[in-house]
Specification:
By secondary structure, this protein is of the alpha/beta class. The protein contains 22 helices and 36 strands. It starts with 6 loop residues before the first strand and ends in a 17-residue tail after the last helix.
């Protein structure tokens, strides 16, 4: 076990001096201020802070003379009279490499800014020919390939609205998402490769398109065919030969969409004009279509990527993600700050568990981001990353990273700070995270993000320090949703975040704020372990259990209800070759008793073939709890929003 709070890394004077955040503070005349002083200013004077972000990064657009912020949550409005376009800011550069694409089979493509601008202009012209206009929706059923980024930028340039899903999503899951937003165009691949296997999705695309009566066209990218032919997707045979006759709209190939040159123009739109629609996981109900605006995303990603990830024009930025997770949207934000995003399509563990570390090596990645489970899997597998000479930072998100994960990075990548971040699809950024000015301590998130007034509330709605409470945001942020799609009176939006503390955003995580502004996330507050009145986040439990080499994964469920003590059940997925023996269960119980408390010794330990997770890799604690309390499996979770729905059957009481 690694002690929480153990010091692992401290910035040198040189690192502090060259940090993007330091240069920003110098420009404000605040070079001598502590981070906490600057954070306090950023949340107490939001109009001044966010206007400074606009000017510091020289955002392209017309800054209106109206008030910077009007109203309060959940109906705050930002930058009245201001117009801009995300794509215009992302495509402002004309020299150097714009992006790199690699796939698990070794294919690689590099695209310059000139080439990217030309491709966006061509696809933009194709969308115009299909009748796409400002406010229309364009949907992508695409892996993390250049065509996804190109199609998004072309859509945004028109003031149209982008939405995407990964091709590993099932048909009902995608239809549940896209049918809500009524897209005019669907852009899809014929299939994809993952973990050394090919997956033909042509039948799925036909089914999806048939369920979207608003489509004017379905655009096919012969990605699977291209890989099998050994060519880039845009060079493959453009005829969508495996497309069925659809009841509505034209069917064309990617080559047909980009066939004609066109001007690269940008429709400047109001600050809050919809940019893209992201979705909640949809595991327990219809996915919530979360709409973000051009202005909020531009300012938030400029601030976060520059000051918290310390990214700029000399950087190569990698984050392992699919188009179905908000981290894709964050990754491509690298274009806003001049960094090169590395787009990767494939498995994180193929052909070996070190696959992503090899990409970091071969592509000269300077900032490497993954979900916390990948770091812990690397630790358990005994991976020794190559010497990554250019690497300046590692990022972790998706779930709490235990102190042992921090320590492993510190040991294997000496001198490289690990920043743990926590936020959400809801704001497409992190509420809390790191900066190059902060020391790194095991298990600790160093700071609250600039412009994010994060607090920890007790059940009475009072802020607390030094104890676990609800993560709340008490002042609006520009990247909060401008609305939910098809939620005209805002009821669904209010119910999602403001039903517990009126006028205060409740995010649904357990948070402990420390006196110095650092914090610890303890997991979802709707899956709390409450044993004998002692509340505990599930992350503390997993830290103990998953330290055992025999345990590959785990899930803990407290079946207690209001006023009634329940059972504490521990489910484990065993490592290859391991068995759930009496000595192992005894050792697990002893460790939990000693390191947590006697109250947290499970009533039962059960081996299962897999732990249910969302498509983005998050453990499904709440649906399993519902199943254990009597909810039928088919009602507790939407299988099409899960990575492994077949395992739910093993949790029936």
């Amino acid at each position: 076990m690694v002690a929480e709070g153990a010091l692992l890394w401290e910035p040198t004077e040189e690192i502090v001096a060259r940090a993007k955040l330091t240069r920003y503070l110098e420009s404000l005349g605040r070079a001598g201020s502590s981070y906490e002083e600057v954070w306090r200013w950023s949340v107490d004077s939001p109009a001044e802070f966010w206007t400074s972000i606009w000017h510091h990064f020289d955002v392209i657009g017309e800054l209106g003379d109206g008030p910077v912020i009007t109203g309060t949550m959940p109906t705050a409005d930002w930058f009245t009279g201001t117009t801009l376009n995300y794509a215009e800011n992302a495509l402002r550069r004309t020299e150097g490499t714009a992006l790199v694409f690699v796939s698990e089979d070794g294919a690689r493509q590099e695209m310059s800014h000139v080439e990217l601008r030309e491709e966006v202009a061509r696809v933009r012209a194709g969308l115009v020919r299909l009748g796409v206009q400002r406010g229309d929706r364009v949907a992508g059923y695409l892996p993390n390939i250049p065509q996804a980024l190109i199609a998004f930028l072309a859509t945004a340039s028109l003031g149209a609205i982008w939405s995407a899903g990964s091709p590993d999503f099932g048909v009902p899951s995608i239809v549940d998402r896209f049918r809500q937003i009524e897209p005019k165009v669907l852009i899809a691949v014929d299939g994809y490769h993952y973990n050394g296997k090919s997956y033909d999705r042509s039948a799925a695309v036909n089914e999806i398109a048939a369920e979207l009566p608003t489509l004017r066209a379905t655009v096919w990218i012969p990605y699977l065919a291209a890989v099998e032919e050994g060519s880039a997707p845009q060079q493959a045979e453009p005829t969508p030969s495996n497309a069925a006759d659809l009841p509505h709209g034209d069917v064309i190939g990617w080559e047909g969409l980009r066939a004609e040159e066109g001007p690269l123009e940008f429709e400047r739109v109001p600050f809050g004009h919809p940019l893209w629609i992201l979705y909640s996981s949809g595991t327990t109900g219809l996915p919530k279509p979360i709409v973000h605006g051009h202005g909020g995303v531009v300012l938030e990603h400029l601030k976060s990527l520059s000051f918290h990830q310390d990214l700029g024009e000399e950087d190569v930025f990698f984050w392992y993600t699919t188009t179905g997770w908000m981290m894709w949207n964050y990754l491509i934000g690298a274009l806003l700050v001049g960094a090169v995003p590395v787009l990767y399509d494939g498995s994180a563990t193929y052909p070996s568990a070190a696959a992503l570390w090899r990409i970091a090596d071969t592509e000269g990645v300077t900032y490497f981001g993954v979900g916390a489970p990948y770091i812990m899997a690397s630790l358990k597998a005994g991976i020794r990353p190559p010497e990554l000479a250019r690497l300046r930072g590692v990022g972790s998100t998706g779930s709490p990273l235990p102190p042992e994960g921090f320590a492993w990075v510190s040991t294997e990548l000496p001198g490289v700070p690990l920043g743990s971040f926590s936020g959400g699809t809801d704001v497409c950024t992190g509420f809390v995270g790191a900066t190059p000015l902060h020391p790194i301590r095991a298990g600790i998130i160093p700071c609250r993000s600039l412009g994010a007034k994060v607090e920890s509330f007790d059940p009475a709605g009072q802020p607390v320090v030094g104890e676990v409470g609800e993560l709340v945001v008490t002042q609006p942020m520009p990247s909060m949703p401008v609305m939910f799609w098809n939620d005209p009176d805002g009821e669904r939006y209010r119910d999602s975040y403001f039903d517990v503390y009126p006028g205060v955003w409740r995010h649904g995580d357990w948070l402990k704020l420390n006196p110095d502004g650092s914090c610890v996330i303890y997991g979802r507050s709707d899956s709390t372990l409450n044993r004998g009145g002692v509340r505990m986040g599930t992350s503390e439990f997993y830290r103990v259990v998953e330290r055992f080499e025999e345990i590959a994964d785990s899930l803990v469920i407290d079946t207690g209800q209001l006023g009634q003590e329940g059972r504490l059940l521990l489910y484990v997925t065993l490592a290859e070759g391991a068995a759930l023996t009496d000595p192992l269960t005894d050792a697990l119980r002893a460790a939990l008793r000693e390191e947590l408390s006697p109250r947290h010794v499970p009533n039962e330990i059960v081996a299962v073939p897999g732990i249910p997770r969302t498509l983005s890799g998050k453990k499904l604690e709440v649906p399993v709890r519902k199943i254990l309390l009597g909810t039928p499996v088919e009602q507790a979770a939407n299988p099409d929003a899960m990575a492994n729905p077949e395992v739910l059957e093993h949790f029936k009481p």
